[in-house]
Automatic annotation (TrEMBL):
This is Kinase. GO terms for cellular component: cytoplasm; nucleus. GO terms for biological process: inositol phosphate biosynthetic process; phosphatidylinositol phosphate biosynthetic process. Pfam families: IPK.
Amino acid sequence: SESRTTVLLEPFVHQVGGHMSMMKYDEHTVCKPLVSQELSFYESLPLAMRQFTPQYKGVVSVHLKKDSLGNLSLMASPSLQTESCTRLDNAIGDSSVTIWHKCKWAASTSSEHTLVKWSHTQLTKTFKDSCPGKMLLRTDLQYHTDSLLEDANRNQPERNSYNPWGLHCHRQHLNRMSSKHNENKLHQFLLLENVVSKYNYPCILDLKMGTRQHGDDASEEKKARHIKKCEQSTSASLGVRICGMQVYQVDTGHFLCKDKYYGRKLSAEGFRQTLRQFLCNGNHLRTDLLEPIILRLKALLSVIRKQSSYRFYSSSLLIIYDGQEHKENTVPLDNHLHFQKTNCTVSHGSHPSRVDVRMIDFAHTTFKGSKCNHTTYDGPDHGYIFGMENLIKILQNISEGK
């Protein structure tokens, strides 16, 4: 077992939204707690949707570990198939998606494989390895807990030295697991493609899509809570709200971050301005990104309209681009083209920018034939479509300078 590939489970430093901790399994893979409804979705994913969702890579067994100082960490017990594919993945880089897709995956409940733990003291190294350059995160996050991760000496790291939201979720998740389960209990985690691994400075917008956020299995109390959140946010008026964001600022070398609490308070106009801010790198508006993002959103919208019976309750849409741009893409215009509430001039570029649009989080997605189906619906998800149409319209208006 000592010769087998070891796996380091780390917090995923580019998690900008959600409440469940996302872990980094390897350079191209993240993992999250398995929910049977989400697994059912990935196992029966329509072919047309595959380019708009993370690659599903299988399942891994994980359990909690507490050291003598009381520090919590997650231990992964990879299956032999997982280890074999990981070695291939590391060896051939971007071609790994093909290899992952061809592998047959199985959950491993065996305890004989090498167990690997993540140490909180490696947090700084994790962040540096994930991003080139000396980048800090400037943040407007509001926390509902007294502190973030602490080391063995109860020292709290500086808040601006990493993506605080992902670590906030990670700590809460470990504490929840610790209070509910003993150390030896095995938990199944989903292995999914790390959709931002190819970006040097990943700028990420997490959008909660649709006019309804509660699943069919929600209690009356939870249902009422989610309905209220939708009514009091842009979910009701636009069918979309901001759940998290990080944008690389070239003028400072920092990321600007917003969290879900910020997104919930936005008016329709505030949503539009924040969308502009997501496309602003601190010097100018990245208008070179607008056309490829709009085209990809339109392609996804076309696919969603054809998915009868699917309801993507509480799922998110990620818009991703690289904060590092080529100098030839940038041609600043006159000052009269400045946008409100930003210091950004406009840039146009002839080179297509690398952007991505992905749907994530399907724990409450339902469809005809789902193993966890509660209600069978007819036709496409009109709440999701409403949000997509408004999102595209707002981006088109920004593109036209409105």
